[in-house]
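// run 5 | inverse folding | seed 20
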C-alpha cells in the first residue's frame, strides 16, 4: 500500500469504497452493489490484476479501493463498523484501518485483498466473508 493510503482514517473509508465503485463501473457494467455475491466480482478483479503481471506497487490504488469495497460489504451486510486501528493493530495488520464486527473482533479487509493478490484463489474474498466470525446478521443470498 502506498504511503498516502496509510494515512486514510476510518471515517473516509465509505467514500473511498464509493469512489472505487464509480471509477471501475464507469466503463463496465460490473455488479458492485455491496452484496455478498458481489465479492465474486471482487475476486475476479483481483485475479485480473494478478494476470496483468505487474508487481504489487503498480496496482496499489486498485488494491486499496478493492479493500475499501470489501470492508464496506462487511459494514453493510455483517454489521461491522470501520475503525482506526491502534498502534499494536497497525503493526500486526500492516494497515491503518479495519472493521470491527458486532462481537468486537477486528478484521482486515485491506490485507485480505493484498493476500488475494499475492497468493491467488486460495484467499478468496467471498470465502473470507462466508467464514467470517462475529457477523451481526446474515448477508444477502448468493
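// decoded
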Amino acid at each position: 500500500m502506498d504511503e498516502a493510503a496509510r494515512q486514510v482514517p476510518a471515517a473516509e473509508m465509505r467514500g473511498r469504497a464509493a469512489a472505487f465503485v464509480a471509477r471501475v463501473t464507469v466503463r463496465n457494467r460490473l455488479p458492485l452493489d455491496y452484496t455478498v455475491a458481489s465479492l465474486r466480482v471482487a475476486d475476479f478483479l483481483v485475479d485480473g490484476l494478478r494476470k496483468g503481471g505487474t508487481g504489487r506497487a503498480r496496482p496499489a490504488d486498485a488494491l486499496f479501493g478493492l479493500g475499501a469495497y470489501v470492508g464496506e460489504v462487511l459494514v453493510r451486510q455483517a454489521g461491522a463498523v470501520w475503525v482506526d486501528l491502534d498502534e499494536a493493530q497497525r503493526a500486526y495488520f500492516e494497515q491503518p484501518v479495519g472493521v470491527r464486527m458486532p462481537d468486537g473482533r477486528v478484521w482486515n479487509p485491506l490485507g485480505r485483498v493484498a493476500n488475494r493478490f499475492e497468493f491467488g484463489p486460495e484467499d478468496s474474498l467471498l470465502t473470507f466473508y462466508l467464514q467470517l466470525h462475529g457477523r451481526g446478521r446474515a448477508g444477502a443470498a448468493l
